[in-house]
Amino acid sequence: MTGSRPNMFFIACWYCLSPLLIFGIWIFSMAQYKPLSIAGYVYPPWAVGLGWVIALFSVLCIPAGMLHSVLTSPGHSWLKSNATNAQADQYILKAPFKTHVQEDAGACPECKHFL
Question: Which spans are transmembrane here (predicted)?
Fold first, then answer.
């Protein structure tokens, strides 16, 4: 956006530090979860479930929008190139490899390189 690469600190934060911290906060909040109660009234499980569903609708729009824009955009995307690379890897793994040992130093008759 500014025409220069971001500092290594920011790259490390975006790819490693932030996801690990967010995952840790999520795990600890799930471990300490208590049902909602206000002034001694504990809400029924269906009401708590409805609240979670409403909250998930707003959160799931972000990855759904990302996936939609990646799949419908023109050109090559990571998902499309990854599928192509997987097909190429399968071809490479199935290709026969020839191994040979030349006793004396000289030109290899099969591949014409000098040993």
Answer: 7-29, 49-71
